[in-house]
């Protein structure tokens, strides 16, 4: 396990009898708190193998748990030139957005009902959904959607991709299932007042693509 960390319960084992040492030796988990290369998807989630309410992700240093208040360190990302990766926005219920004619962002792009500069085809009107949002706001193909704040990283060097891969947050702006309570809040790792909740689309933050292009 990492420096300054001790497994929470030295005699811990999951329901199959597998210990922290077994998890680490067989690469069933990662130090960042995710499934390792030895974990099979058909087994479900590591948290499904909790014992006494604790899984390896809580108990084992080698799985991102243990007795420590320290998070794993990352190398901060650097902005890269070229098009910004964009994510179509979901509706407030967390499902695929559709306008009042039930058209999705994929349909707008496929039929070329709009352009990335935010203009609509002369054959189409900006039909809105029940929340008065149109494709111009919700869809990358129409100049909307969401992009991460370029080059952002938290005070430990973790970027938006790290938050997404490690399930540290939800797109509703809450802590994800792999965020450890001993780390405090996500906002505690803000840089210049901006945390993942404000910088990352996967955490409910980010910017519209047109806004990002104007800034970057």
What does this molecule look like?
The chain has helices at residues 20-25, 56-59, 105-110, 135-138, 160-165, 196-199, 209-215. The protein is mostly helical. It is elongated. The model has no long low-confidence stretch (mean pLDDT 83).
Topology:
Blueprint: H1 20-25, H2 56-59, H3 105-110, H4 135-138, H5 160-165, H6 196-199, H7 209-215
Tell me roughly what share of residues is in helical segments. 10-25%
Strand content: under 5%
Run of helices and strands? HHHHHHH
Number of strands: 0
* Content-based structural category: mainly alpha
Separation of the first and last Cα atoms: 40 Å
Q: What is the overall number of helices?
A: 7
Describe the biggest sheet?
none
Task: Outline the low-pLDDT stretches.
Answer: none
The shape, in one word, is elongated
Q: From the alpha carbons, calculate the radius of gyration and give it in angstroms.
A: 21 Å
Mean pLDDT: 83
Question: Would you summarize the structure shown here?
Answer:
The protein has helices at residues 20-25, 56-59, 105-110, 135-138, 160-165, 196-199, 209-215.
Question: Which short descriptors sum up this protein?
Answer:
216 residues; mainly alpha
